[in-house]
């Protein structure tokens, strides 16, 4: 199928606007030229008629007197007028009795004169004299005593009429062509100024958008119509941008949901695995610890006692790991309204009991009357793990602060240590078995347990840089839990 050729907007404007207007002006020029030619021809004929009527009386008087010389002088005087090409006087038989101009070269009688004499009235006609086409006007001659049986003829070249008409047509059609060309130039220039440049700018913007620059916008400060097109185009781009943002937000939400679901599934599977391992390890560790205590009572050798204490120390460490594993896999909450300050004091006491080196100073800023709706055992586990990490990282100070704002209550625990390294993503700290502590110093379950408990309470946990230089962990809980 042949491809249909489309016309440009310029060609459409020329075909639908300029050419019809130019054709209409041509019709107007043609009609006007026709009527102007008719008026010019009538004027030329009237001039000859007036001359003929002006000389008929003196010629008539001269004929009555038989003075043909005066008749001839009158005809010669008429011929001297630039508009007259020839003049003749005819008797009642149509015979030429006097002539001037071209009529001198025509020796034939004029049958028209005889015909006009019979009618006895003015008349005119185109004819040939001396081989040339002329226009003649016949007027009956009038003497002092009335109309005489003679006729005067005044002629003019027929080409005078066509020359006058051609001159009018030349100037009319020449002016039409010149005005048409000027109009065409004005139309094209006006189109370029009014539409062309704005259309080019809009096309350029569309090209930029097509190459992926969706932030481009068309200028809407032009003509009303082009401004409407530009605004509609910009609105379309805004709608596309909004739709893309919604799609990206939806995709990000789906990705987050999928990651959360994947993590929950992974944590659930890991919890089941950890629970089974912890139960299997619990009994052997109790047996080892019991046997070590029994041997310690039986053996008084200091070196043996030291070795048994080392065994019991490692068993204790393994026992704590098992307890953490069980806490990690534990589900369900048993909430109740509890004062927050005593829970924090109890957790600090437990952490102090574990510390073997110098203990940091605790700065606690928690109102005594604040109550929270929590699972006591699991929340104590959160506090102990966070405080233990802070104590291990701190140089001299650990702080606990309570805040309430924007429909949430917060609990922040910070230290003045070195903080986390720049190449570590805080999200990694929540992964099970990931730890920044030296080998043998941590299991990587503390923050994972804290995150699970906080999440079960409907809260969020964030990491930030503390003003004192170390790490700050902030727990955010909804107000309805207070």
From TrEMBL:
**Which keywords does this Swiss-Prot/TrEMBL entry list?**
ATP-binding, Coiled coil, Kinase, Membrane, Nucleotide-binding, Phosphoprotein, Transferase, Transmembrane, Transmembrane helix, Two-component regulatory system
Q: Which Gene3D superfamilies match?
A: 1.10.287.130, 6.10.340.10, Histidine kinase-like ATPase, C-terminal domain
Which InterPro entries did the record assign? HAMP_dom (IPR003660), HATPase_C_sf (IPR036890), HATPase_dom (IPR003594), His_kinase_dom (IPR005467), HisK_dim/P_dom (IPR003661), HisK_dim/P_sf (IPR036097), Sig_transdc_His_kin-like_C (IPR004358)
Where's it found, cell-wise?
Answer: Membrane
Q: Which GO terms describe its cellular component?
A: membrane
User: Where does the record place the Histidine kinase domain?
Assistant: 276-481
What are the EC numbers? 2.7.13.3
Q: Where is the signal peptide?
A: none
Q: Where is the HAMP domain?
A: 193-245
- Which GO molecular function terms does the record list? ATP binding; phosphorelay sensor kinase activity
Q: Which reaction does it catalyse?
A: ATP + protein L-histidine = ADP + protein N-phospho-L-histidine
- The regions listed as transmembrane in this protein's record are 170-191
Give the CDD domains listed for this entry. HAMP, HisKA
Superkingdom as given in the UniProt entry? Bacteria
Where does the record place a coiled coil? 226-260
Q: Which Pfam families match?
A: HAMP, HATPase_c, HisKA
Query: In its keyword annotation, does this UniProt entry include Ribonucleoprotein?
Result: no
PANTHER family, alphabetized: PEROXIDE STRESS-ACTIVATED HISTIDINE KINASE MAK3, SENSOR HISTIDINE KINASE
What name does UniProt use for this protein?
histidine kinase
What organism is this sequence from? Answer: Vibrio eleionomae
């Amino acid at each position: 199928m042949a491809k249909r050729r489309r016309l440009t907007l310029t060609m459409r404007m020329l075909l639908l606007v300029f050419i019809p207007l130019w054709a209409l002006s041509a019709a107007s020029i043609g009609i006007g030229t026709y009527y102007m030619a008719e008026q010019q021809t009538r004027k030329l004929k009237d001039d000859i008629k007036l001359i003929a009527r002006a000389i008929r009386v003196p010629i008539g008087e001269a004929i009555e007197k038989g003075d043909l010389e005066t008749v001839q002088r009158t005809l010669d005087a008429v011929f001297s007028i630039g508009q007259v090409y020839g003049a003749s006087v005819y008797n009642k038989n149509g015979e030429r009795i006097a002539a001037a101009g071209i009529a001198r070269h025509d020796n034939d009688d004029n049958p028209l004169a005889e015909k006009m004499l019979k009618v006895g009235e003015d008349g005119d006609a185109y004819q040939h004299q001396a081989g040339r086409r002329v226009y003649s006007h016949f007027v009956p001659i009038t003497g002092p005593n009335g109309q005489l049986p003679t006729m005067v003829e005044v002629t003019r070249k027929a080409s005078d009429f066509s020359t006058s008409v051609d001159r009018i047509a030349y100037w009319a059609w020449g002016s039409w062509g010149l005005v048409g060309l000027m109009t065409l130039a004005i139309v094209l220039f006006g189109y370029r100024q009014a539409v062309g440049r704005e259309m080019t700018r809009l096309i350029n913007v569309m090209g930029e958008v097509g190459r992926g620059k969706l932030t481009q916008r068309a200028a809407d400060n032009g003509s009303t119509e082009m401004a409407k097109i530009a605004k509609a185009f910009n609105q379309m781009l805004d709608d596309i941008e909004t739709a893309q943002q919604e799609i990206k937000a939806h995709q990000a939400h789906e990705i987050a949901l999928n990651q959360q679901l994947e993590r929950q599934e992974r944590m659930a599977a890991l919890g089941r695995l950890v629970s089974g391992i912890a139960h299997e390890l619990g009994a052997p560790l109790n047996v080892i610890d019991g046997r070590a205590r029994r041997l310690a009572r039986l053996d008084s050798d200091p070196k043996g006692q030291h070795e048994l204490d080392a065994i019991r120390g490692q068993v204790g460490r393994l026992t704590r790991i098992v307890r953490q594993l069980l806490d990690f896999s534990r589900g369900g909450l048993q909430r109740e309204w509890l004062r927050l300050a005593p829970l924090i004091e109890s957790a600090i006491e437990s952490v102090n009991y574990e510390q073997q080196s110098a203990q940091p100073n605790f700065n606690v800023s928690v109102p005594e009357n604040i109550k929270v709706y929590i699972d006591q055992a699991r929340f104590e586990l959160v506090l102990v793990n966070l405080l233990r990490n802070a104590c291990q990282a701190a140089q001299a100070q650990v702080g606990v602060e309570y805040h309430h704002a924007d429909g949430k209550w917060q609990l922040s625990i910070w230290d003045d240590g070195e903080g986390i390294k720049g190449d570590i993503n805080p999200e990694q700290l929540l992964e099970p078995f990931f730890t920044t502590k030296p080998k043998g110093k941590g299991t990587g379950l503390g923050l994972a347990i804290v995150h699970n408990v906080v999440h079960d309470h409907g809260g969020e946990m964030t990491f930030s840089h503390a003003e004192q230089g170390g790490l700050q962990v902030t727990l955010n809980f909804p107000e309805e839990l207070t």
